[in-house]
Amino acid sequence: HELRSLLLEGAEVRSLRVFFYPVFRGASVDTCILIASKGRRVGAADRIDVVRSTAPGQSTASGIEQDRWEAHPRKEFFLPGDEGADALVQRIRGRSFPLGDVATAYFGIQTHDRARFVRAARERACDKPVVDGVHVQRYDLLPGTEFVEFQASAIKSGGKATVHEAARIGVRQIGRTPVATMIPAGIYALNTIYNIHFIRPTPLRLEFVLGVLLSSTCQWFWLHHFYDQKKTFPKVKKEALLSMPIPLLDLGIPGDRARHDALVALVEKMLALVPRLRTARGEIERVTLQNAVTATDQQIDAAVHGLFGLGPEDVAVVEAGARAG
Q1: How far is residue 149 from each of residues 118, 141, 172, 267, measured CA to CA in Å?
Q2: Rounded to an integer, what distance in angstroms lies between the CA atom of residue 135 and that of residue 144?
Q3: Could you tell me if 28 and 233 are in contact, meaning their C-beta atoms sit under 8 angstroms apart?
Q4: Backbone angles phi, psi at 127, to 5 degrees
Q5: What is the Cα gyration radius of the chain?
Q6: Mean pLDDT (10-residue bins), the chain, 325 residues
Q7: How far apart are CA 9 and CA 256, in angstroms?
């Protein structure tokens, strides 16, 4: 954030070329070329040439005004999309606040030696049941089969017990879009999971936040704004998570309270349905539960569309983009 702010204030960005394929052999890194000149000219148009390179010899060009990067709350160098999509992003931002205003995403436990301190059976009183990213599914938490030795000599980072001893949202670190569910209090998380929990007083429920994050609106927003374009192991970044839009509500107003509570009820329904679908035995039971999950998912999407004030054209953009992603 500080480096981007310094660059935008003290230089004119001329060109940005982003590579969506491996540039350096044997290295999995994000690569771009940014060309800028020192100093800002008063009254300059400051239009930046943006080139997307999808493969050697295959590129597309567009442009974006530097002022739009400067206006971003975190000074992000986002790429231009079509005008309708960019306008929709601005409307969503105008009716929301960043998740990071009320919550943080605490990274899970990293031990000094996983082979030594994470084990298949509880051997010590300090051993805690633990899950990692593979256990986090959309509205579902697969049963963990391991225990982590939770004491200072074993923990390198992520060892704040108060986080793990409270219910929170768990978000898998790897994914094209955030994959998340609720993690019950007392289930500890390894460092392939972000633990979202409130750090400031708020009347919002975590289930409300979960429903917003997993909605088609926020899936579209993520793909448009934060997806790192990696074909293998795309990462969910903490800063991006905390920049996700949460609808502005005043829960002292009965209508806003009702909309909040309705979304929470739908999310609680999904959290009950999805594990049942996973363990369904017969085909009739599976089909019945799948239909219920699909219908509830659609209701959540519709509720979030309404919370962001999306019209029919906006919904069409979101649904088409989410399906394409």
Answers
A1: 6, 21, 22, 33
A2: 7
A3: yes
A4: -70, 135
A5: 22
A6: 87 91 80 89 73 90 87 76 73 94 98 96 96 98 97 96 98 95 98 97 98 96 80 85 96 97 98 97 96 98 96 88 60
A7: 39
Structure tokens at 90: 């601005």
Q: Which token pair is 210?
A: 């979960």
pTM of this prediction?
0.82
Angstrom distance (rounded) from CA 138 to CA 210: 10
pLDDT in tens, 160-216: 999 999 999 999 999 999 999 999 999 999 999 999 999 999 999 999 999 999 999
* CA nearest to 320, candidates 183, 216, 233, 178: 216
Burial class (CB in 10 A: 0-12, 13-18, 19+), 215: buried
Distance CA 121, CA 124 (A): 9
Sign of CA dihedral 96, 100, 101, 104: positive
* DSSP 8-state symbol, 174: B
Q: Which residues on adjacent β-strands are paired with residue 169?
A: 182, 196
